[in-house]
Amino acid sequence: MLQTEQRTLGASDIALPALGIGTWSWGDTAFWNYGQDYTQDDIVKAYKACLDAGLNFFDTAEIYGQGASERILGDCMREVGEPIVIATKFAPLPLRLSARTLFQALDDSLERLGVEHIDLYQIHWPYTFIQMNALMDALAEVVRKGKVRAVGVSNYSANQMRKAHARLARHDIPLVSNQVHYSLLHRHPESNGVLDACRELNITLIAYSPLEQGLLTGKYSVNAETIPTIRGPRRLSPAFSLRQRRKMEPLLGYSSR
Fold first, then answer.
1. Any stretches that span the bilayer, and where are they (predicted)?
2. Distance CA 257, CA 244 (A)
3. Whether the Cβ atoms of residue 156 and residue 198 lie closer than 8 Å to each other
4. Residues 6 or more apart whose Cβ sits within 8 Å of residue 30
5. Rounded CA gap, 87 and 83, in Å?
6. Which residues are within 8 A (CB) of 39 and not within 5 positions of it... i.e. 6 or more apart?
7. Residue 223 in contact with residue 249, Cβ under 8 Å?
8. pLDDT one-digit tens code per residue, 97-137
9. What H or E segment, with its residue span, contains residue 170?
10. pTM score, two decimals?
11. How many degrees, rounded to 5, is the angle at CA 79 between CA 21 and CA 114?
């Protein structure tokens, strides 16, 4: 495994490579065409390539592929046998009306992954039907039980993040991360206060969709000799329209030089 630049996750003792690997597509048939365009064998090869490049931080969630992503990540980890840093998420879905549902959800994630603890456990998005304080108290409890090393949130505004940080502080537990949409085409965290609040509170901003679901890779450039078929819901996205991709050509041309 190559040595890569390491960063500390917020106020925790967890060291991570500067680049992490998102696993939304692992096992997801509805959005990413798992089983048609690629298989678990392809994922295992990608997993090994990541480790060879020194990238051992993997982010998943219980709703990715309805649990398939966590199971596949666990399979890869056991097959290769090298230690990795795992982040996953609790989804406050409509039928979950109590913060205590987090305890069973965490146990289910632990079982699917085949591990005894999660390095980073996150609330997937803010949810009005479960009080934030109750969710933060539940996160503090699973940390005390040794099932989770560090806790974070996802899709939280600057104000929501401050409130979560303050509630966890009552338990002497830091909020170490906020995972938000952030890319060259989506720079809202720079203007909506999230990035500033992260810097102020020593919270790591984890960017999801930094390549805009593949749009910024150049794979779908209109100037490419062969343009791959845009599959799944992305084909209906205005961002992937021919007009928008033509507008992006100067950006993609600059990034390739």
1. none
2. 21
3. no
4. 232
5. 13
6. none
7. yes
8. 999 999 999 999 999 999 999 999 999 999 989 999 999 99
9. none
10. 0.93
11. 75
How open is the CA angle 87-62-34, to the nearest 5 degrees? Answer: 100
- Walk me through the domains of the chain, giving residue ranges and CATH numbers: 6-210 (3.20.20.100), 218-257 (no CATH)
Return the amino acid letter for 128. T
User: Is residue 210 exposed (0-12), middle (13-18) or buried (19+ Cβ within 10 Å)?
Assistant: middle
Q: Look at residues 211, 206, 207, 205 and name the one whose alpha carbon lies nearest to residue 234.
A: 211
In degrees, rounded to 5, the angle at the alpha carbon of residue 192 between the alpha carbons of residues 6 and 172 is 55
| Burial class (CB within 10 angstroms; exposed 0-12, middle 13-18, buried 19+) of 32 | buried
Instruction: Output the six-digit token pair for 70.
Output: 């966590």
Q: List the end-to-end C-alpha distance of the chain, in Å, as a whole number.
A: 28
Q: Tokens for 187? A: 């720079």
Task: Give 175-234 as a 3 state SS string.
Answer: EEEEEEECECCECHHHCCCHHHHHHHHCCEEEEECCCHHHHHHCCCCCCCCCCCCCCHHH
Mean pLDDT, residues 214-238 taken together: 79
Tokens representing 114 are: 């085949």
Reduced to 3 states (helix: H, G, I; strand: E, B; else coil), residue 70 is helix
Q: Is-contact 53 4, C-beta < 8 A?
A: yes
In the chain, the amino acid numbered 228 is P
pLDDT given for residue 1 in this prediction = 64
Assess whether 38 carries a catalytic annotation: no
Cα(187)–Cα(147) distance, integer angstroms: 34
